[in-house]
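Exercise 3.2. Students should predict the tertiary structure of the chain below and write it as structure tokens, then compare their answer with the key that follows.

Predict this chain's 3D structure.
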Amino acid sequence: MENGFTRRGGLGIVAAVAFAVGNMVGAGVFVLSGLVVQTAGPSAVISYLICGGLVALTGLSYASLASIYPEDGGGYLYSRRMLGAFPGFLTGWGMYISVTIASAFVLLSLGIYVNLLFGTSFDIRIAAGAGALALAIVNLRSVAEAGKAEIVLVALKVSILAGFAAIGIAMATPADFSPLFPHGASGMFSGVVMVFFAYIGFQVVAMMGGEIKRSERNVPLATLLSIGIVALIYTGVEIGLLAARLPAYGETSLFDAAVVFFGEGGGLIIAAGAIFSTLSAANANLIGGSRVALEMASERQIPGWFARLRNDQPRNAILLSTGIVLVLITFGSLGVIVDLTNTVALVAMGLVNASAGVLAIKRGTVPENRRYFRLPFGPLIPAAGAASCVLMILTLPVPTLLAGLGALAAGTILYVLEDTPRGERAVGEIRTLLGRDGR
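Answer key:
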């Protein structure tokens, strides 16, 4: 049957890196970068570097597991295979919820920069809601179209940010970094927790592994490459912000710094880049989240309603994500959305690190003739990745932490819910398309 699921592996390594970079280089740099300087001062540069190193530990766990299980689903699939059904469910649901919540923050950031670009003062929720609906329409068509759009959007925004970073680095002086810790070391560590949100998009590559050519090789490679590329971009942009010597820093600081360096035209270019960036990040989130939901439905861990396809796309998973995003856009705030995203993402990533630790200890679970990316030092890297997730969870505000855990707990309703006959038929159809009808 000719459809998007029998033609597996349609995206190359460039598109895979583009999806990950596109997901990470979004609101995390155009909006969050100024807020981190506000919190940490010049040590914001260190915050981004430390967080990048911590996320790389989890990225290595993803890379090892992805080289063995190169299908759609990412961390959900890994946890289910290594830890069991219910831990796998918690990981998958956490991933789905986290990327969906993150899309709301990203699209609200879109609203901020639409106003800056056009000199308007509309409620940012208007542009955010319009963006969510537009991306839903694109993703209901085909992943190939979404992939082409992603490469173009990422190329545009990376070029803009690279130019900004280059000018900023050239103009920076030692005085721009003094005092390095104006709010003490605690400010710098608060910055680390804030920018975790900016890095979590790397997992989108693993979520859609089944769509990527030679995924057993390209998924690990794209995961690690994307983290490294984004760390360089973030660091360069933060140095540029400090070199601009703004009187105050906040959510529009990148725009303000561009005006300092390049005049009003430079600010407009940054605003346009932010719009490209936020759209591509939300696009990647929507694709990755829908693939996790589809995978969970195909394994009968959530109702078959999520497995129903239209134009070979998981229609209902996309529509549900869009609905959640619209609710958060309407009623949420930027700070709460970031903390809520971090809560559920950290739980999911902690479970993925635990899965990689099990793999490192029990290598007998992999056939001897199977080549895969083996982590050095046995389970030490996954253990360090899991520990970093736990430490960051402990720094989150208690109300938001409880709300995030509540969202995970609410998902268990889907886990125990009996499916309908129509849902069972949808699951049967998707399992046949995925070649699992005999499993």
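Discussion points: Residues 73 and 295 are 6 Å apart (CA to CA). The chain has one domain: 13-433.
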